[in-house]
Amino acid sequence: MFKRVRIAAKSGARRSTIARRVLAALLAASLLPVAASSVEARDPLLAYGARIVGDDARTRIVIDFDREPRFSVHYIANPERIVVDLPATAFGFPAKDLAARGLFKDIRYGKMDEESARIVLTTAGPVKLALAKVQADETGNGHRLVLDAEMIDKKAFAQLVKTQSWSDRTEAAQTTSAIPAPEKAAPGDFVIAVDAGHGGIDTGAIGVDTKTEEKQVTLAFARALTDRLNKEPGIKAFLTREDDEFLSLSQRVLIARQNHAGLFISLHADTLKQKDIRGATVYTISDKASDKLAADLADRENLSDQIAGKETVAEPPEVADILLDLTRRETQAFSISLAESVLNSFKDQVGTINNPHRHAGFRVLQAPDVPSILLEIGFLSNAEDEKLLLDEAWRGKIAGLLTDAVKRYRAAVMANGG
Fold first, then answer.
1. Taken in order 9, 10, 11, 14, is the CA torsion positive or negative?
2. pLDDT tens, 68-110?
3. Which phi and psi (to 5°) does residue 111 adopt?
4. Model pLDDT for residues 248-307, shown as the tens digit of each residue
5. Reduced to 3 states, what is the DSSP secondary structure of residue 41?
6. In what order do the strands lie in the sheet with 104-113?
């Protein structure tokens, strides 16, 4: 995973030299993933500096790289965004140096997969890049990407979206290579997909004290849970993502289904405006939210694809099939049973919020044939919860309790001929 690194530099040459040393140290510490199939993935670009200037009519972004970056630009509507795709890149500048201003109301950047990174510029209105170019810096030791954005009308923006060439890989292609099948899964094994929420460019929530990113917390918990589940005979668990990479919500669901998962557990650690609220919550899917908190959380989680600059694609119409409807109903009943088993395990062991089983329209729980829950382990907006979420012993305790819940659920299913 990428760590933000402050680089103090007085000149372009010195910045570039320090940047290379920092990158080498990160690689030596194995903090950056290595992909043998790609030179750029083995030796990612380093974006070591950034700045943004301008107003609500014209805004310039400049990003300094240790060497010349290849890039492509795309426009996305609903909401209006500019997407800049890059090869594998480590972003080593302070987040405040690229804080949104002027024409941009939100700026995200990060890893997409082992070979690519992305910058997503969410705009305050229709915008185009009047200039997008790479140029060598004055010292000759690095390159900078210069993006000049200017305001345009809605008709002109719609034309940009319509006429652009988009050569992004398909969801199916990404999913095929995203995760291997569970190792040594034998006939009759109970297969569980453990989903670490967020990842890559989608950092998720940020800790109130330590500023730890949710994607790091969820991956640590997912690894602990997977390891614990795999110690149980007859159970094979696998991760939907094994590293700091972005997966769309539909990819996560597809990975679970392709690997014939009997359960899907998605782990999260969100933030709330009410910082006094703390404890775990278990969510299941429903067309109608149980309450406003559940509805708001589902809305935020369902924005994951948008944050990563994914195009909005209309969901394919479902075939009117009574068997499919019955499958969904049965799956929902199993999901509720799993949620109740988890809360029984947590009783007197783990603090929960009031009414800890809630439901809403989470897209990541939409598999019609895989019982699924979304578990909010705690809230990074609460200082006490944050301490627990970062505690390795606490992770182990939660993993053990969840494993007990899964075993009880499985026993009940088997007893009923499942």
1. negative
2. 999 999 999 988 999 999 999 999 999 999 999 999 999 999 9
3. -75, 140
4. 999 999 999 999 999 999 999 999 999 999 999 999 999 899 999 999 999 999 989 888
5. helix
6. 72-76, 81-87, 116-123, 104-113
Count of CB atoms within 10 A of residue 310's CB? 20
The token pair that represents 281 in the structure block: 């919550």
How far is the C-alpha of 235 from the C-alpha of 245, rounded, in Å? Answer: 26
Query: What is the percentage of the chain residues whose pLDDT exceeds 90?
Result: 70
Are 277 and 378 contacting, i.e. CB atoms less than 8 angstroms apart? no
**Cα–Cα distance list, 125 to 130, 152, 158, 261 (Å):** 15, 8, 12, 42
The ranges of the chain with pLDDT < 70 are 1-42, 166-185, 311-324, 417-418
Residue type, 30: S
Burial pattern 181-214, b for ≥16 Cβ within 10 A else e, equals: ebeebeeebbbbbbbbbbbbbbbbbebbeeebbb
Q: At what angle do helices 392-415 and 214-229 cross, to 10 degrees?
A: 50
Residue 272 three-state SS:
coil
Contact call for residues 122 and 80 (beta carbons, < 8 A): yes
Q: What is the pTM of this model?
A: 0.78
- The CA-atom distances, in angstroms, between 255 and each of 45, 101, 166, 372 are 29, 38, 24, 13
CA angle 364/367/332 to nearest 5° reads 100
Kindly state the tokens that stand for 68. Answer: 């010349």
Give me 101's structure tokens: 């201003």
What sign results for the dihedral spanned by CA atoms 11, 12, 14, 19?
positive
Can you list the alpha helix ranges (DSSP code H) found in 133-264? 154-163, 171-178, 214-229, 249-258
First to last CA, the chain: 40
**C-alpha to C-alpha distance for 241 and 317, rounded to whole angstroms:** 28
Question: How far is the C-alpha of 412 from the C-alpha of 344, rounded, in Å?
Answer: 14
